[in-house]
């Protein structure tokens, strides 16, 4: 009877794998295919005429050049800041490392439009903070952040966490025994660092650089809020402006632009994959003691320098944002007689659009996290147990919707869902198109941690349960779910925190009644309601920090692997 049970179980696993894999592929890859088809066809005919026309346009070439410049130099800024923090936190005996890691994760969780808004509040002639301190430039002076240099600086700060996390992971895998062996052989000082540590961490650094460049390339919030007022157009903002123009051929044109920026992003993905594969030469993993190079008398000065950088890139902009939210009008100095909570009251309690945005963002992010757990957990387990060619194809392409710029995915979803097949219905303009876009974009954020956890499980437990007659769903519920729960919870936390503030995708998909928090902040600032935008942005920052702080405080009572920034 056991072989028959096993045979029936294998067939049920195969059927479930086919169903879940079909759902995952439909969510993640179908929009990308639809986008490509739109860009290379004219009606029902294959045609590259429109693509050639769009690519020859001077505006397209200028936007592409601007995107490459800002993303490239922004990545360089991230490497300088994130690399310095990673080396010092991972390799030395600094104190309060957990607090530093936590603070460096906050910019990654704060949406880019809030980053841009907060930094504009501490520079320029209308800065409330500078006016309060008597340091504001004269009226009429330009806002220095409305420039390519401003975009580069903020892109670098926004994505510092990516370089820090990827490089720190590579550095922590270097065992202390290797360095001690080099020192016994006569290597000293900078020679150990240059000839031992740097070569071993180069694959991690290169992979982080590729991820950072792709992420910066698709960033919409910072180039939109700083570049549009300065007339500095990048590919994401050009796509947004063209779609807002509603021309006769606009969807086909933006599809071509999306393919262009997607092609650049795919090059970055391939580079990242190449260097990730090179990481396999890393010696013996993390079983030995990690490095802890003593800083000696320089430790206090180093710690002070790092915390000053944290204050400059995190605390100071938040103070500027808070000061702006407490005045009656933008540009008024903050004093006891001008301090007011009217913008907070207006944004949180009187504006129905902001209340809808809070509800929509919470429902979308929480719903996406739950739906992705339900999809990714059985999918990762069944793919590990039943390797297929289709499964390997999905595994190779699941990262694509997340790596592609958000505006590219948004255009793909519009093209796919503006007319549902075989009906006259449409999802465009409804909250469901945003929800499906979130599922596609954040699938890999949930899938990869669960997949890594599943691969570490001993298959003997599942085989033992199967031998005594446990059904497929009993094994999923009693064995796989409890053992992979920490990884699933870590993925859910990242999905929720990231989707809660998302702008890049929803900026092109929202309509009246389906506003998200990221869209509301962008629209308020764009319409001149800077004080109300600051109040709403400050509320979101406080919510994110409280959630992250609560998770951090509960970390010691949670299973290992649940807190994503500690793994």
The CATH H-level superfamily of the largest domain is MetI-like
CATH class of the largest domain: Mainly Alpha
What is the radius of gyration? 25 Å
Average pLDDT, all residues: 82
Helix amount, in percent? over 70%
Q: For the terminal residues, how far apart are their CA atoms?
A: 44 Å
CATH architecture descriptor name of the largest domain: Orthogonal Bundle
- Strand residue content: under 5%
Following the backbone from N to C, one meets helices and strands in this order, namely HHEEHHHHHHHHHHHHHHHHHHHHHHH
Write the layout of secondary structure elements.
Elements (H helix, E strand, L loop, with lengths): L1 H27 L1 H11 E2 L2 E2 L2 H8 L1 H34 L5 H13 L2 H9 L7 H6 L14 H11 L1 H13 L3 H9 L5 H28 L3 H10 L4 H11 L4 H29 L20 H27 L16 H9 L1 H34 L3 H9 L2 H4 L2 H12 L13 H25 L3 H9 L4 H29 L16 H10 L3 H24 L14
Antiparallel strand pairs: 1-2
Helix pairs in contact: 1-17, 1-18, 2-14, 2-20, 3-14, 4-8, 4-9, 4-11, 5-9, 5-15, 6-12, 6-15, 8-12, 9-11, 11-14, 13-14, 14-20, 15-25, 16-25, 17-21, 17-23, 17-24, 20-21, 21-23, 22-23, 24-25
Q: Can you describe what's shown?
A:
The chain is mainly alpha-helical. It folds into 2 domains: 1-38 and 341-567, MetI-like fold, CATH 1.10.3720.10; 47-282 and 298-313, MetI-like fold (Orthogonal Bundle), CATH 1.10.3720. Helices cover 72% and strands 1% of the residues. The chain is built from 25 helices and 2 strands. Helix 2 packs across helix 20 (406-417), helix 4 crosses helix 9 (160-172) and helix 4 (58-91) runs antiparallel to helix 11 (190-217). It is globular and about 80 Å long.
């Amino acid at each position: 009877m056991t072989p028959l049970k096993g045979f029936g179980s294998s067939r049920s696993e195969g059927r479930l794998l086919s169903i879940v894999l079909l759902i995952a592929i439909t969510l993640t890859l179908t929009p990308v295919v639809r986008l490509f088809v739109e860009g290379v066809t004219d009606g029902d005919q294959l045609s590259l005429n429109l693509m050639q026309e769009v690519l020859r346009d001077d505006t397209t070439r200028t936007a592409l050049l601007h995107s490459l410049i800002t993303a490239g130099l922004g990545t360089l800024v991230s490497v300088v800041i994130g690399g310095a923090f990673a080396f010092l936190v991972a390799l030395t005996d600094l104190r309060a490392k957990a607090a530093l890691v936590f603070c460096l994760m906050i910019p990654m969780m704060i949406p880019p439009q809030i980053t841009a808004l907060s930094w504009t509040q501490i520079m320029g002639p209308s800065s409330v903070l500078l006016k309060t301190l008597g340091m504001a430039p004269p009226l009429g002076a330009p806002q220095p952040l409305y420039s390519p240099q401003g975009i580069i600086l903020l892109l670098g700060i926004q994505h510092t966490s990516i370089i820090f996390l990827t490089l720190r992971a590579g550095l922590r895998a270097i065992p202390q025994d290797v360095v001690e062996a080099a020192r016994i052989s006569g290597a000293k000082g900078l020679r150990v660092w240059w000839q031992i540590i740097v070569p071993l961490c180069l694959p991690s650094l290169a992979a982080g650089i590729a991820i950072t460049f792709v992420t910066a390339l698709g960033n919409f919030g910072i180039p939109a809020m700083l570049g549009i007022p300065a007339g500095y157009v990048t590919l994401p903002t050009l796509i947004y402006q063209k779609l807002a123009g509603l021309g006769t051929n606009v969807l086909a044109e933006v599809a071509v632009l999306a393919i262009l920026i997607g092609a650049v992003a795919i090059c970055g993905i391939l580079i990242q994959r190449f260097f990730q594969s090179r990481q396999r030469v890393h010696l013996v993993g993390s079983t030995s003691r990690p490095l802890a190079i003593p800083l000696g008398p320089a430790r206090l000065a180093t710690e002070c320098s790092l915390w000053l950088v944290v204050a400059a890139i995190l605390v100071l902009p938040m103070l500027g944002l808070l000061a702006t939210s407490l005045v009656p009008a933008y540009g008024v100095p903050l004093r006891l007689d001008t301090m007011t909570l009217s913008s907070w009251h207006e944004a949180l309690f009187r504006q129905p659009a902001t209340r809808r945005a809070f509800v929509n963002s919470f429902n979308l992010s929480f719903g996406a996290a739950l739906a992705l757990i339900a999809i990714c957990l059985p999918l990762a387990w069944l793919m590990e147990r039943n390797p297929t060619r289709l499964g390997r194809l999905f595994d190779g392409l699941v990262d694509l919707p997340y790596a592609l710029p958000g505006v590219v995915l948004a255009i793909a979803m519009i093209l796919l869902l503006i007319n549902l097949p075989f009906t006259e219905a449409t999802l465009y303009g409804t909250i469901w198109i945003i929800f499906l876009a979130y599922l596609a974009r954040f699938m890999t954020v949930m899938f990869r941690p669960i997949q890594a956890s599943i691969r570490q499980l001993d298959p003997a437990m599942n085989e033992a349960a199967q031998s005594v007659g446990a059904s497929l769903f009993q094994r999923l519920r009693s064995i796989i779910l409890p053992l992979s729960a920490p990884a699933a919870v870590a993925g859910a936390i990242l999905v929720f925190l990231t989707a809660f503030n998302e702008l890049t995708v929803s900026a092109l998909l929202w309509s009246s009644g389906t506003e998200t928090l990221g869209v509301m902040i962008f629209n308020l600032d764009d319409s001149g309601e800077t004080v109300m935008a600051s109040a709403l942005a400050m509320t979101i920052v406080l919510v994110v920090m409280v959630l992250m702080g609560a998770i951090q405080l509960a970390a010691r009572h949670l299973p290992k692997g649940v807190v994503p920034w500690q793994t």
